[in-house]
């Protein structure tokens, strides 16, 4: 890959970023399509977020992705928000339009595309574990697509309550916030059609962790989803499979939201199948072929 003064720069900001496959996936797409673009990771400390966003403008980045823990914090530094980002108050994609930073949210749309691709439906009753930025987007999309009751569990009860209030005000969906404990989870899971891990628990480098120990109390038709894609088979997913349940890992959502990022920032139609191949092969330790 040749870098010159015409190279369009993209990137991702967050902390930690060691587990992120976004640079690999996007740079593989650029090589495949012959685009003079480069995607770089930036692990950002909390106190430097404002300066980093200034640098995006000064250095002429065409756009960046945003991940944990800055999806809500970054909003204070943006000039404009898309409709969904404004409603969800969470941003995972920023486009630089001639020095104006516009925030978008592709998490919810990416999740719904992944759900449809797996042949699953939102269901009437969902349980969300975690109430951070990704959870806001997923919860909003589920509520907008027919979910009638939603249990939102987080180790921080106040955060669960805030998300529950947001969903109740934004959509026709009954919400029940709670602290994430084994007892609360078992009670909520027993009634659920869909259970989603929206927390970072189980993500590399802490792949030996899971937000739950068992799915023994769930119905046989329940669908188990994990937003984590690295590793693709988290302990959370393994527990679901051992129980004979339908499971959906985070790979498809990751790829779909990445494709949406390229549509927004570069205005291209990304090669979705190729992106999935790159990510799946990397996670399986096979590498990839850009030809």
Kindly describe this structure.
It is a single chain. By secondary structure, the protein is an alpha/beta fold. It has 2 domains: 8-105 and 252-283, Leucine Dehydrogenase, chain A, domain 1 (Rossmann fold), CATH 3.40.50.10860; 108-249, NAD(P)-binding Rossmann-like Domain (Rossmann fold). 37% of the residues lie in helices and 20% in strands. It contains 10 helices and 12 strands. It has helices spanning 22-33, 49-58, 83-88, 107-117, 133-144, 157-170, 182-189, 235-242, 251-266, 272-283, and strands at residues 8-14, 37-43, 63-66, 80-81, 93-97, 100-104, 125-129, 149-154, 174-179, 194-197, 223-226, 246-248. The strands form 2 sheets. A 6-stranded mixed β-sheet has the order 2-1-3-5-6-4. Strands 9-8-7-10-11-12 form a 6-stranded parallel β-sheet, sandwiched between helices. β7, α5 and β8 (149-154) form a beta-alpha-beta unit. α1 (22-33) packs across α10 and α9 (251-266) packs across α10. The longest helix has 16 residues, at 251-266. The chain is globular, with a radius of gyration of 19 Å.
Give a summary of the structure in a few sentences.
This protein is an alpha/beta fold and 291 residues long. The chain contains ten helices and twelve strands. The model has no long low-confidence stretch (mean pLDDT 94).
Task: Summarize the topology.
Elements (H helix, E strand, L loop, with lengths): L7 E7 L7 H12 L3 E7 L5 H10 L4 E4 L13 E2 L1 H6 L4 E5 L2 E5 L2 H11 L7 E5 L3 H12 L4 E6 L2 H14 L3 E6 L2 H8 L4 E4 L25 E4 L8 H8 L3 E3 L2 H16 L5 H12 L8
Parallel strand pairs: 1-2, 1-3, 4-6, 7-8, 7-10, 8-9, 10-11, 11-12
Antiparallel strand pairs: 3-5, 5-6
Helix pairs in contact: 1-10, 4-5, 4-9, 9-10
């Amino acid at each position: 890959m040749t870098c010159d003064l015409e190279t369009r720069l993209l990137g991702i900001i967050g902390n930690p970023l060691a587990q992120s496959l976004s640079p690999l996936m996007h740079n593989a797409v650029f090589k495949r399509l012959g685009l003079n673009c480069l995607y770089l990771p930036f692990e950002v400390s909390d106190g430097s977020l404002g300066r980093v966003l200034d640098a995006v403008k000064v250095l002429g980045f065409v756009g960046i992705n945003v991940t944990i823990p800055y999806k809500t914090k970054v909003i204070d530094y943006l000039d404009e928000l898309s409709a969904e980002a404004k409603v969800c108050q969470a941003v995972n994609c920023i486009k630089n339009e001639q020095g104006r930073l516009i925030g978008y949210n592709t998490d919810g749309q990416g999740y719904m595309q992944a759900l449809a691709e797996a042949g699953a439906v939102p269901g009437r009753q969902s349980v969300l574990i975690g109430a951070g930025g990704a959870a806001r987007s997923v919860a909003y999309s589920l509520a907008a697509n027919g979910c009638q009751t939603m249990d939102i569990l987080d180790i921080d009860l106040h955060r669960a309550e805030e998300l529950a209030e947001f969903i109740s005000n934004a959509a026709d969906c009954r919400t029940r916030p709670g602290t994430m404990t084994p007892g609360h989870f078992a009670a909520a899971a027993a009634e659920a059609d869909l259970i989603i891990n929206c927390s970072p628990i189980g993500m590399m480098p802490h792949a030996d962790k899971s937000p739950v120990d068992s799915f023994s109390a769930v119905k046989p038709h329940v669908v188990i989803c994990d937003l984590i894609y690295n590793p693709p088979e988290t302990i959370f997913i393994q527990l679901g499979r051992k129980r004979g349940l339908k499971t959906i890992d985070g790979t498809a959502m990751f790829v779909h939201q990445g494709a949406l990022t390229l549509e927004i920032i570069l205005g291209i139609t990304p090669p979705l199948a190729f992106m999935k191949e790159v990510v799946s092969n990397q996670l399986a330790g096979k590498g990839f072929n850009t030809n």
